[in-house]
Every structure is written in structure tokens, then in C-alpha cells.
Write a structure and sequence with these properties.
Blueprint: H1 4-8, H2 16-30, H3 39-55, H4 58-68, H5 82-86, H6 101-155, H7 159-172, H8 177-199, H9 203-216, H10 222-235, H11 238-251, H12 256-270, H13 273-295, H14 299-302, H15 310-325, H16 329-342, H17 347-359, H18 366-375, H19 382-388
Length: about 400
């Protein structure tokens, strides 16, 4: 008859440590992962696990022993470690200290050792503190020399080198406050110098300084980008001016004024009609969303023309011009209709609508729009009137 003790291969008086050791050994030997496809090993592993679950629990083991050995009953609180503890040698009691001359000598030696170690530790800490302070002072003095050199570079006009020196020092000591303060000071000084050239209409020099400032700001500030756009525009470099304005637009995509300026420059200065049309469409979407937020979904019927900003009319007018140049006359007429609704007293919207209708061969209202445009003071009407109305 197999018992849990025989399954684990231990004696019935084995303690908990022996039970656990026997279980680990057999579980490792018969584990299914180590014996794939072996049903006998799997069955043996289950029996080993069942025997361990019973013999490792004192209560379950006591009950099991009562069934296995009915001639005696093991109490539930039986301590299987007790026989091993009884075999240990008794530890003799330690003698009490005797307060005599030997005792006082030992105490004195202990105090002297403690004082010596404390003094040594204090001296060591003082030396370390001195070395650290010395190195910090040397680093501070070296950093000061580097900053003075950066100031000399800046004063001699080598602005990029000055900013590069400060940037390198900041990367080495990112928590040093005076480096950030020095960088801000150089940026302010360079901006002031660029503003002086800008106010004096020395736009080429101002553009160069603003470009250096933009390279060394992280990122380029709105004011710097705005001044770059203005100086490049005054110089006549409209492409660079547009690049600065587009960077501004990436930072402030909800600015209708900026969108209109980009669109108008593409239309009038760069003659990039498709790009101009794209920004006019963005401008119309921005304005329509704002009007919709104010008047609701039915804003077309509820909007008060006097409450619409002048810029929306300018966007519609520019969009109509682009659509005419792109031969999208139906879209141009739609832009002009919206422009006339919000600014019925501006004659050029009628002129553009007349031109768009004439190009798409809708002549019914061409002359009437041209006459209205003339009454409102629109210009450049003679050629259209001679071609379509005389």
C-alpha cells in the first residue's frame, strides 16, 4: 500500500524541511514539461503534488497520520521541529559584566576609538568638501572666461559664434541660471540692434540680424518672424518673406489676417495663383466658422452685413480674383455674390462679378453690374464697358 510518505520517499517522522526537499526533487524529476508524452510521469507528478499538499500542512498531516496510524493520535498542534530542537546543545548563560578596573579600561578604549573614528571621518569630509568647492570654483572661473569671450565675439559682430559659445556652455551645465540669462541678454541686444536698422530703413542689415536671431532663438519668436517677413518684403525678396509668414502661420493657424497676407502676397507679388487660392480658401473657412459661431448654422440668412469684419470682404474679393485667373468663373461669381451681400457699397465687387459673368457668357447682368460699379466709384471700367455694353 502506497502512502504519502512512501510516495515522497521519506520517513513518517520527517520534518517540514525534509518533506519540502523530497517534494522539490520528485517534482523536478516527474514534471510534465520534462517528460512530454509520458502519462506515467504525469500521474506520478500528480501523486507527488497531492502528497506534498497534505504533508506540508500540519493540520492535514495530523489527520492523515491519525488515519494511517490508528493506534495513536497526533495532536493537531504537534510540532514536527521539536525533536530536532531537543537534540541541540544547550547554550550556557553568558556571565554578567563586572564593574571593575578592567571594565572601565574597556569603556575608555571604546570612547577613544569612537573619538578617533569621528575625527577621521570629519577630517575626510572636510577634505572632500574642500576639493569639491575648489573644482566648482575652477569651473565657475572657466565659465566666466568663456562668457567674457562670448561678449567679445558679440561686440565684434561674430553673433553666431557668441551664441554658439553660450549654447555649448548651457549643454554642459543645463541648470546654470546665468547661462540662460546671458543668452536672453544677447538675444535682446541683437533684437535692439536689428530694430535700430529697421527703424532707419536699413532693411538689408536688419534682415541679416533678424535671420541670425531666428537661428539662435529656440524656437524663433513671433516678433522675430514678423520682422523678417517685413524686412524681406521691403527688400523685395518675397519668397523669403513668405517663408517667414508661413512659419508664423504654423504657430498661429487661426489668424485670418496672417492667412490673408500670405494669400495676397502669393497673388500680387509671387504670382503663385494656386497657392494664393489655397490660402484664400483657408481664410474663407476661418471667417465662416467665426460667423457660424455668432449667428448659428443659418448665418447666411441671419448675418448682419455691418457686423462682418472688413477682412472677410477682402478675402472674398481676393478669392474672386484668383478664380477668374484660374478660369473658375462660377466660383468667382459666388465669391462676388457673398462680397456684395456684406459690402453692397463697394464697387469693385460688381466689376469682378460682371467680368466673371461675361467670361462664362451670362450677359444678362453684366452691364447692370458695370453701371453699379461706376456709380460706386470703381476703376478700370472703360475696357469692359466698351467690350460688353456699347
Amino acid at each position: 500500500m502506497s502512502t504519502y510518505y512512501s510516495i515522497l520517499g521519506i520517513d513518517s517522522r520527517a520534518d517540514a524541511t525534509s518533506v519540502r526537499a523530497a517534494y522539490k526533487k520528485l517534482a523536478m524529476a516527474y514534471h510534465p514539461d520534462h517528460n512530454p508524452g509520458n502519462p506515467e510521469a504525469e500521474e506520478t507528478f500528480k501523486m507527488v503534488n497531492e502528497a506534498y499538499q497534505t504533508l506540508s500542512d500540519p493540520v492535514k498531516r495530523a489527520r492523515y497520520d491519525g488515519l494511517l496510524f490508528p493506534q495513536y493520535t497526533i495532536p493537531l498542534n504537534y510540532d514536527y521541529e521539536r525533536p530536532r530542537r531537543n537534540l541541540r546543545r544547550p547554550v550556557p548563560a553568558r556571565p554578567y559584566y563586572q564593574v571593575d578596573s578592567q571594565y572601565f579600561r574597556m569603556q575608555a578604549v571604546s570612547v577613544l576609538v569612537f573619538v578617533a573614528l569621528a575625527g577621521l571621518g570629519f577630517a575626510l569630509m572636510s577634505i572632500i568638501h574642500y576639493v569639491v568647492e575648489r573644482r566648482q570654483l575652477e569651473a565657475y572661473m572657466q565659465e566666466t572666461k568663456e562668457l567674457e569671450h562670448a561678449g567679445v565675439l558679440f561686440a565684434s559682430g561674430q553673433f553666431d559664434d557668441a551664441f554658439g559659445t553660450v549654447r555649448r556652455l548651457t549643454e554642459e551645465a543645463p541648470l546654470e541660471y546665468r547661462l540662460r540669462a546671458t543668452s536672453d541678454s544677447l538675444e535682446h541686444a541683437l533684437r535692439d540692434l536689428a530694430n535700430v536698422h529697421f527703424d532707419s530703413k536699413e532693411y538689408q542689415e536688419a534682415a541679416t540680424l533678424y535671420a541670425i536671431l531666428a537661428r539662435n532663438e529656440e524656437p524663433a519668436s513671433v516678433e522675430t518672424l514678423r520682422k523678417i517677413a517685413m524686412t524681406e518684403y521691403y527688400i523685395g525678396d518675397y519668397v523669403q518673406s513668405l517663408e517667414a509668414m508661413k512659419e508664423l502661420h504654423r504657430q498661429y493657424p487661426e489668424s485670418p489676417e496672417l492667412v490673408y497676407s500670405i494669400a495676397l502676397m502669393n497673388l500680387d507679388k509671387v504670382q503663385n495663383i494656386n497657392e494664393a487660392m489655397r490660402y484664400f480658401e483657408i481664410g474663407k473657412s476661418l471667417h465662416q466658422r467665426r460667423i457660424r459661431e455668432q449667428y448659428g448654422i443659418s448665418f447666411v440668412n441671419l448675418v448682419n452685413p455691418a457686423g462682418v469684419v472688413e477682412l472677410y470682404f477682402d478675402v472674398l474679393h481676393g478669392s474672386a480674383r484668383c478664380n477668374i485667373l484660374l478660369s473658375k468663373f462660377d466660383e468667382a461669381v459666388k465669391d462676388c455674390d457673398d462680397a456684395v451681400k456684406i459690402r453692397p457699397d463697394v464697387g469693385d465687387a460688381y466689376r469682378l462679378r460682371a467680368l466673371a459673368n461675361a467670361r462664362r457668357r451670362k450677359m444678362e447682368t453684366v452691364c447692370r453690374d458695370l453701371a453699379r460699379a461706376r456709380r460706386l466709384g470703381a476703376k478700370d471700367l472703360e475696357v469692359l464697358e466698351k467690350e460688353f455694353c456699347l
